[in-house]
């Protein structure tokens, strides 16, 4: 145990000596940043928010597209004239990925500089996760509704309007609207999203 404490003390002394040399400058900036609330690793969390927003919304869009396409394929066997009318769930599923891209680009535009704080990084990560997971849920909803709705529309054409309304409320920009309260800049300016 004494050896462990002596080695730890030796390592701390070496780290302190390394801060005075040029080779240890990066190490010193990492462990002792000039602004403790804005360490050099803070942008990592912001970029993880960008990644989460894009990845999860694309997964939701892919699931919604695949599930809706299965319903369209089965419906097309009996009613091929309804194929183009039934593409709407696939289009709406693809729009979810665009929401994720927009949120990721807005977050990416806010990342950077030496004054990028951990608070901003965590806020951007939370915003990205919120957008991504809402988009994933919306993709699941659109896929299930699109599959069942398209098959039902083939049997009863009056179901089409109801299916479209359910699809609209399934998507409804939840992935973008849910991000507003999460971002670090809480002002009344609507254009300053995050």
From TrEMBL:
A single GO molecular function term of this UniProt record: proton-transporting ATPase activity, rotational mechanism
Domain of life the protein comes from: Eukaryota
GO biological process: lysosomal lumen acidification
Localization per record: Membrane; Vacuole membrane
Membrane topology recorded in Swiss-Prot or TrEMBL: Multi-pass membrane protein
InterPro entries cross-referenced by the UniProt entry: ATPase_proteolipid_c-like_dom, ATPase_proteolipid_csu, ATPase_proteolipid_su_C_euk, F/V-ATP_Csub_sf
Family in the record: Belongs to the V-ATPase proteolipid subunit family.
Protein name (Swiss-Prot/TrEMBL): V-type proton ATPase proteolipid subunit
